# Entry
Amino acid sequence: MPNCKSCYTPITWTISPAGKLLPLDSRPYVILLRDQLVAAPAPATTRYRIDQIGDELHAVKDPEGTYVSHWVTCPTREQHREAHR
# Structure
């Protein structure tokens, strides 16, 4: 499993709805409630589910999804933005 090059958090590379590469946090936002895993409050952002199509992982916008973009949660995200300017 790959890690973010700056904060070393495990990420999952997916293809976004726009067809671009999108890193998602590999750890889903879930909690155990009465012996069931349920979606937990995630950062105020778009949620995704991951669909596998052939060999590719696709990020699909889903309000019930448990994955969020790593661009939202990365503590060093500003370093990535500055590198692309």
